[in-house]
Design brief:
Elements: H1 5-16, H2 19-22, H3 28-33, H4 43-60, H5 62-67
């Protein structure tokens, strides 16, 4: 059965490196849940949060379970973020 562990790990790593945790000394759960602290969380973390939400919802939704959960436990390769490594 697919899980969302890969996305969850990426989300936690992103939050651990964010300004909210490193500079402001907030906990990871506070940065993830508190809307007032969302300004200090990078956009990439917010996108990972949405992907994690979609993954978890896909585990419950029977229509998605039959098709398979998109991005479930799949790590994004490093070369996706670096355009110099794209092979065009």
């Amino acid at each position: 059965m697919p899980t969302c562990d890969g996305i969850r790990e990426d989300f936690i790593e992103c939050l651990l490196g964010s300004e909210c945790v490193v500079i402001n000394r907030n906990s990871v759960s506070d940065c993830a849940r508190n809307k007032e602290l969302a300004d200090t969380v990078p956009n990439q973390c917010m996108l990972l949060r949405q992907s994690l939400f979609d993954c978890k919802r896909g585990l419950i939704d029977m229509r998605r379970r039959m098709r398979g959960v998109l991005n479930a436990g799949v790590k994004i390769p490093d070369f996706v973020d670096d355009p110099s490594k794209w092979d065009l």
